[in-house]
């Protein structure tokens, strides 16, 4: 049973007896082969061969004149035991890296008329009197953008009582030109919602809140929002003094009482503009102004005026029915101060190529990703083109494997092509591959290797063996660079075999050589003397007859198939016509031939074959030799034990005369084949492969 095992087998005891089993065996079902059936040439973990009894041809000669009986036969040795062992297979590692480069190429174009970056903060008074002003300002976005709409602008809003940037319900905190261009209606509605701060506080700290809002301060946190190269402007909208206008208000002695609190924090100074209450009572008769002013001491926003004039801004009275004209004036003032700047998609490195309408520009500087043109730009200029590199990656000759590398397994690929080993080296201390020269920009570098962990150098055969019979092959090549541990019998290689190498071994075991052979044709007690010679060379072999009357050969003189001739001296009567020859094993009757002087009829008289004897008579004595040839059956067996120490599942396979045989029976580690299926002399090979 190999890959076609029968799940439930019931045998009659008579059948078991026919198999040669002398006691009720314990049946073990042979496991099924989980893959394809292996061929006889496959490499099993353990394999052994037998012959089902030796059906051998025998040749005996009788020379009556010289009193000599000759017996030719072959010496025998059991087939060598074979094993297949396997070296550790360390995983193949692949580390991929890429060479650096000078940067990616980028090309951008801008309309010169849209040059400049503007970050505008509007700080609105949220005290009780400001409701009407807020409504008026909420509709004035077009006026604010009248002279800066072509810039890369952003607008944020805070109040005189809270520096946190306001946010719409939908999450808009900073209004941008991109948002405005994509949806002007939604952008204007977001602006109205940001401006409509409500009237919720009598706390007035205009300069303080403006400075903190520009820095991105909100409570305990700070989130910067100003762009490094943007023109920063502030629009103050209030009908109060810096720290309130009532007699019980003010911030005398506080750092934020004066304009320097803001100007000292920024360089360059933000340009501040203002819609302020300049007279009390208000100069305008518009009803929206009636809630302002009328203080015991008329307000004097001197700190605001000082801040505005110091930074180069403009201011006017808040009490107006229409802010359109004044906001357009402020917009123009802001626009005039915006540098010729362009916000690039990336931060450039190295030399840039810049031209305006095809004319090269040589005077410029960059700060992060903002390009500022420092030479005059001619009126009517249309388009600026900018080419540059960005995001460079450092170049290197060193590439890390990240682990210890077995140098003998290392290969390096550059752009999927194997690099010559003379172009690089491996440093075991740094675990880096070092190239002699820089690989080309952006080259793909693959390090392919096995980790430098020890490979096995010692391998132990499953069975005991005779050391002088051991042969070793590594990946099919004979191998002799090893020693054998005298105690453990381990095979110790001078150098470990390579990863996943097949170590195939063959060896003889104690008892594999047949050292004793029957004396055929004579009784040992009748011998006068004898000798044994090598049939091919004629050289004598030192052989003795043991206590059991058998020829005993020295082990070193035995190898399988060696042909020898045993010559025994006896006394014969010259006219002897009847012969009785001791035959130790069964003769196949149909194979027997007896000839005298080449004639079979002469001595094939009264032939009798008994258990241990062949007798015959000859019709006359006029012959020199009698030649007897026959086939004998010796040591027939049909059960075979492959003894090894392994507790796990095993795939058993049986081959008879080279062909896989499936109708075998497995009793633990013994294979039994019915006699009817196994003729004498058949070659049996059994393979056991752990699963």
TrEMBL record:
Annotated keywords: Signal
Highest taxon in the source lineage: Bacteria
InterPro entries: vWFA_dom_sf (IPR036465)
Gene3D superfamilies with a match to the protein in the record: von Willebrand factor, type A domain (3.40.50.410)
Keyword Cytoplasm set for record: no
Keyword Signal listed: yes
Signal peptide (UniProt feature, chain positions): 1-23
Record protein name field: VWFA domain-containing protein
Native organism: Pseudobacteriovorax antillogorgiicola
């Amino acid at each position: 049973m190999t890959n076609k095992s029968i799940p439930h087998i019931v045998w009659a005891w008579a059948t078991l007896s026919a198999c040669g089993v002398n006691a009720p065996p314990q049946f073990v079902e042979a496991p099924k082969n989980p893959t394809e059936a292996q061929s006889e040439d496959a490499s099993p973990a353990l394999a052994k061969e037998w012959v089902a009894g030796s059906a051998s041809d025998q040749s005996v000669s009788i020379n009556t004149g010289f009193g000599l009986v000759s017996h030719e036969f072959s010496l025998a040795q059991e087939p060598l035991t074979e094993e297949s062992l396997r070296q550790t297979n360390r995983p193949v590692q692949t580390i991929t890296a890429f060479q650096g480069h000078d940067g990616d190429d980028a090309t951008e174009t801008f309309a010169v008329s849209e040059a400049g970056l503007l970050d505008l903060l509007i700080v609105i008074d949220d005290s009780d009197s400001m409701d009407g002003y807020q409504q008026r300002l909420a509709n004035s976005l077009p006026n604010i953008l009248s002279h800066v709409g072509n810039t890369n602008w952003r607008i944020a809003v805070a109040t005189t009582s809270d520096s946190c940037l306001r946010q719409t319900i939908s999450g808009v905190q900073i209004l941008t030109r991109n948002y405005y261009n994509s949806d002007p209606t939604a952008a204007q509605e977001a602006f109205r919602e940001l401006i409509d701060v409500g009237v919720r506080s009598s706390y007035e700290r205009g300069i303080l809140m403006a400075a903190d809002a520009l820095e991105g301060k909100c409570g305990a946190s700070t989130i910067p929002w100003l762009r490094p190269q943007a023109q920063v402007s502030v629009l103050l909208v209030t009908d109060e003094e810096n720290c309130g206008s009532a007699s019980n208000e003010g911030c005398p002695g506080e750092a934020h009482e004066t304009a320097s609190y803001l100007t000292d924090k920024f360089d360059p100074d933000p340009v501040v503009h203002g819609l302020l209450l300049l007279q009390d009572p208000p100069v305008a008769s518009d009803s929206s102004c009636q809630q302002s002013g009328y203080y015991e001491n008329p307000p004097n926003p001197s700190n605001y005026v000082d801040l505005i004039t110091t930074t180069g801004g403009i201011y006017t009275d808040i009490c107006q029915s229409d802010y359109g004209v004044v906001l357009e004036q402020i917009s123009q003032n802001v626009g005039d101060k915006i540098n010729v700047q362009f916000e690039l998609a990336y931060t450039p490195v190295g030399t840039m190529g810049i031209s305006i309408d095809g004319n090269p520009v040589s005077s410029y500087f960059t700060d992060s990703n903002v390009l500022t043109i420092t030479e005059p730009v001619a009126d009517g200029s249309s388009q600026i083109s900018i080419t540059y590199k960005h995001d460079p990656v450092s170049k290197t000759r060193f590439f890390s494997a990240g682990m210890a590398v077995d140098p003998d397994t290392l290969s390096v690929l550059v752009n999927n092509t194997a690099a010559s080993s003379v172009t690089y080296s491996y440093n075991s201390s740094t675990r880096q591959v070092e190239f002699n020269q820089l690989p080309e920009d952006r080259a793909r570098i693959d390090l392919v290797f096995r980790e430098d962990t020890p490979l096995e150098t010692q391998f132990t055969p499953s069975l005991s063996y005779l050391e002088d019979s051991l042969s070793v092959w590594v990946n099919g090549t004979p191998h002799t660079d090893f020693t054998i541990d005298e105690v453990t019998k381990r095979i110790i290689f001078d150098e470990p075999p390579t990863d996943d190498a097949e170590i195939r071994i063959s060896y003889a075991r104690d008892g594999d050589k047949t050292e004793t052979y029957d004396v055929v044709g004579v009784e040992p007690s009748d011998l006068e003397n004898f000798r044994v010679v090598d049939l091919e060379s004629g050289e004598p072999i030192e052989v003795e007859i043991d206590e059991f009357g058998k020829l005993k050969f020295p082990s070193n003189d035995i190898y399988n198939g060696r042909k020898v001739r045993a010559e025994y001296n006896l006394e014969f009567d010259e006219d002897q016509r009847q012969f009785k020859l001791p035959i130790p094993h069964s003769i196949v009757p149909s194979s027997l031939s007896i000839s005298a002087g080449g004639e079979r009829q002469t001595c094939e008289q009264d032939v009798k074959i008994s258990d241990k004897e062949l007798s015959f008579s000859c019709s006359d004595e006029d012959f020199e030799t009698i030649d007897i040839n026959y086939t004998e059956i010796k040591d027939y067996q049909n059960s075979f034990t492959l003894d090894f120490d392994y507790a796990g599942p095993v795939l058993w396979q049986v081959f008879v005369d080279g062909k896989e045989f499936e109708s075998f029976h497995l009793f633990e580690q013994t294979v039994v084949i019915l006699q009817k299926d196994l003729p004498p002399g058949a070659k049996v090979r059994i393979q056991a492969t752990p699963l």
